[in-house]
Amino acid sequence: MSASPSDFLNIDVLAEAVASRIKIQGPALKRVFDLDEAAAYCGLTRDSFKKKVVRDRLRKVRLDRNWRFDKSDLDQWIDAHKEQIANEAA
């Protein structure tokens, strides 16, 4: 009789630990991003993103002298500019 991995490892505990780690570390699960996180989320450099924020009047929240960006606003902006962003990246 051979031993299976489940004899030595509690799969349910491992799955819960992985799910917990993903929830904590997943930046896409955040609702509000700072400037650098928002730029990375949109796939742009910080400077390029700042220019687009000013030019496109992207919605933002000012907290403690810093801009913050709501994920849903970023998603709407991305959807509205999909072709433009794809052409600039090429």
Question: What is the structure about, briefly put?
Answer:
With 90 residues, the protein is an alpha+beta fold. The protein has helices at 11-25, 35-42, 46-56, 71-80, 82-89; strands at 32-34, 61-63, 66-70.
Description:
This protein has helices at 11-25, 35-42, 46-56, 71-80, 82-89; strands at residues 32-34, 61-63, 66-70. It is elongated. The chain has a domain at 30-90: Multidrug-efflux Transporter Regulator, Chain: A, Domain 2 (Orthogonal Bundle), CATH 1.10.1660. Helix 2 crosses helix 3 (46-56). The protein is α+β, with helices and mostly antiparallel strands. A three-stranded antiparallel β-sheet has the order 1-3-2. The chain is built from five helices and three strands. The mean pLDDT is 79.
Beta-strand fraction estimate? 5-15%
Average predicted confidence as pLDDT: 79
- SS-based structural class? alpha+beta
Gyration radius, in Å: 20 Å
Note the quaternary state here: single chain
Compressed to H and E, one letter per element, the order equals: HEHHEEHH
Amino- and carboxy-terminal Cα gap:
58 Å
Main sheet attributes: strand count, strand direction, barrel closure: 3 strands, antiparallel
CATH architectural arrangement of one domain? Orthogonal Bundle
Q: What's the helix count?
A: 5
Top CATH class of one domain: Mainly Alpha
Label this structure with key terms.
alpha+beta; 90 residues; Multidrug-efflux Transporter Regulator, Chain: A, Domain 2
Task: Please describe the topology of this protein.
Blueprint: H1 11-25, E1 32-34, H2 35-42, H3 46-56, E2 61-63, E3 66-70, H4 71-80, H5 82-89
Antiparallel strand pairs: 1-3, 2-3
Helix pairs in contact: 2-3
